[in-house]
Amino acid sequence: MIWIRERCVICGACVQVCPTVARDFVGRDMTAEQVMKEIEKDRAFYEDSGGGVTFSGGEPLLQALFLLQLAKLCKERDIHSALDTSGQAVWLIFESLLPFIDLYLYDLKFMDDERHRLSTGVSNRMILQNLEKLAKERARVIVRLPVVPGINDDNENISRIGKYVGKLKNIQAIDLLPYHATGAGKYVIKQDPYELAQIQAPTEQRLDEIIHLLKKYDVPVTLRGQQQ
Questions:
Q1: Cα–Cα distance list, 66 to 104, 150, 207 (Å)
Q2: Averaged pLDDT, 87-95
Q3: Can you tell me whether residue 76 is helix, strand or coil?
Q4: For 67, phi and psi rounded to 5 degrees?
Q5: Which own/partner pairs from 87-92 qualify as long-range (CB within 8 Å, at least 24 positions apart)?
Q6: Cβ within 8 Å of residue 9, ≥6 positions away
Q7: Separation of alpha carbons 172 and 54, rounded Å
Q8: Is the domain 105-115+143-228 a CATH 1.20.1070.10 member?
Q9: What are 227's strand-pairing partners?
Q10: Where does the pLDDT of residue 137 fall: very low under 50, low under 70, confident under 90, or very high at 90 and above?
Q11: Given a cut of 70, is residue 1 above it in pLDDT?
Q12: What is the mean pLDDT of the chain?
């Protein structure tokens, strides 16, 4: 069997006929109720740990109506829900979710709009506006700062983020997420070039410097979720 990527329409026929079962679909279509049944299986772990469900992706807000259904079901069953998001969505979507999401894990990569455009392809204006509105609504928010050496870890960007977040109300912390290459294997599977292959993870010394810099702005700082 020869797979010609350019002709692939993701129909799954090759998965069904693969004689060695070497091919597989990653993911499947499910209803909100079906997902909820899977979530309910781990209720004992949520109760023991004080944790709950995290909606992530990709970007979960790209499936806003489905996400809203699931968030409502979690709220009805008293299961804590967190939303991991880039913030790139119209405010109406966030507004509809406010009664049902308990915690927002909100990515913030740059303060400078042009640098954000160059690295992500979009403006950061909507992202910042949504974060400010969430703060005004007193939503519980953890700002997550991916630390990518040579991309966004310079002192100017870090300081601007610290100053900005320090002025917002109800921000629980800035959580540093050091860059790692764990996802590189996915690019191999997809046969796509991994454009960040030359970037190394930040050193512990540099992370300590960033933590010290952010603490100047009177905002709690965590590293990989651990208080610093």
A1: 17, 37, 37
A2: 97
A3: helix
A4: -60, -45
A5: 87/126, 87/127, 87/128, 87/130, 87/131, 88/59, 88/61, 88/122, 88/126, 88/127, 89/59, 89/61, 89/64, 89/126, 89/130, 90/126, 91/129, 91/130, 91/133
A6: none
A7: 17
A8: no
A9: 222
A10: very high
A11: no
A12: 93
Tell me the mean pLDDT in the region 99-110. 97
- Give the three-class secondary structure for 206: helix
CA angle 18, 21, 190 (to 5 degrees): 80
Identify the three-state secondary structure at position 197.
Answer: coil
Per-residue DSSP letters for 77-145? TT-EEEEEE---S-HHHHHHHTTT-SEEEEE---SSHHHHHHHHSS-SHHHHHHHHHHHHTT--EEEEE
Q: Considering only the C-alpha atoms of the chain, give the largest distance between any 2 of them, rounded to a whole number of Å.
A: 61
Domain borders along the chain are: 105-115+143-228
pLDDT tens digit sequence for 9-28: 888 888 888 888 888 887 88
> In whole angstroms, how large is the CA radius of gyration of the chain?
20
Rounded average pLDDT over 163-168: 96
* CB neighbour list of residue 206: distance below 8 Å, 6 or more residues apart: 147, 149, 153
Residues in the chain: 228
Give 191 or 220, the one with higher predicted confidence.
220
